[in-house]
Specification:
Length: 327
């Protein structure tokens, strides 16, 4: 096995990524060593790439919360050398170095065998964003939100989570209303019934409850957007929340919950139990598989070219997924 490998490293708060050569002996402990083939770029990765203290605890740090590749070595009998696998969530790029490295080492309990029907590249087009969308859809189903209940509103509909949510919900027969500030025709091509602008979704009424509109929501923005959707969700509707770019405050009365029985479900993609994670990956490889994976690609870059894409993330210029070819 190679004694050295390349990785994108950030060495301090507000510093930028630098492509470095690291020693194999510096890899963290774990039962499974993986040669990474593909990763992706999420907003959390962008924050980590600047050493954001809410994401990065120690330096030097290697970002990359999603990894797909082949096993080089395994001390766990469930996995064998050469096997294609996925790692998303858990402590990848948090408690341990992440996937912007040609080689990673992780605990075996973080690893999932690549589901039949997916390539490594497709798995990273899904990544944490697609997993978050799948969790949100599963939560809507668990709350009894069936297609006949009415429209499902999806915010950030051209982002990583939103684009997958629109496509999968449409495939499952739901009437999707896509909220986006970018290229609404893209959301329509993915199956949305109609689109709305970011301004249109905001309910400015001073009343504690707004007009009853939505059977459910996949909400990835937060702040005023989340508040407006909760105030306008139907009786016994369900709203899933997974984002905060619109703010972390929730200035809201209890009326949506005690007068309409609305459910607010938080989505955490990091600590999903491995059994549920495997179930959702199987669905994403089969019944929930998007019809056209390449339609989710914003761009595809080499490991050495991640840094400019971090700047694009912060400027809000990306639509869909940034794929990183690691090796």
């Amino acid at each position: 096995m190679a004694e050295k490998f390349r990785a994108q490293v950030v060495r301090g708060t507000e510093q930028k990524l630098e492509l470095e050569t690291l020693l194999y002996e510096k890899l963290p402990p774990g039962e499974v060593t993986i040669r990474v083939r593909y990763s992706g770029l999420n907003y959390k990765d962008a924050l980590a790439s600047r050493g954001h203290p809410g994401v990065v605890k120690t330096f030097p740090h290697v970002p990359g919360i999603d990894a797909a590749g082949e096993i080089l070595e395994s001390n766990d009998p469930k996995f064998t050398a050469g096997q294609q696998v996925i790692v998303t969530g858990f402590g990848l790029a948090a408690t341990q170095w992440g996937a912007y490295a040609e080689i990673i080492r992780v605990p075996a309990v973080w690893v999932i065998a690549l589901p039949t029907g997916l390539t490594l590249r497709q798995a990273m087009l899904i990544g944490t964003a697609g997993m978050t969308a799948a969790q949100s859809i599963a939560a809507l189903q668990h709350a009894g939100i069936t297609p006949d209940r009415g429209e499902i509103v999806v915010t950030g509909a051209n982002g990583g989570v939103g684009s997958f949510a629109v496509a999968v919900l449409a495939k499952l027969g739901y009437a999707v209303v896509a909220v986006t500030g970018k290229n609404p025709e893209t959301a329509l091509k993915r199956g949305a019934k109609r689109t709305m602008s970011r301004a249109e979704i905001i309910d400015k009424s001073p009343a504690p409850l707004g007009k009853s509109l939505w059977a459910g929501a996949v909400e990835s923005v937060g702040g005023e957007t989340l508040v407006s959707i909760l105030r306008t969700t139907q009786q016994y509707g369900c709203v899933t929340a997974c984002g905060l770019v619109g703010g972390v405050e929730l200035p809201l009365s209890v009326y949506p919950f005690i007068l309409r029985g609305v459910s607010l479900v938080g989505i955490d993609s990091v600590h999903v139990p491995i059994e549920e994670r495997q179930r959702l990956w199987t669905l994403l490889a089969g019944a929930w598989s998007p019809p056209d994976f390449d339609s989710f690609v914003d761009c595809e870059v080499e490991l050495a070219d991640v840094e400019p894409q971090v700047e694009r993330i912060f400027r809000g210029e990306t639509m869909g997924r940034v794929v990183v070819r690691v090796d």
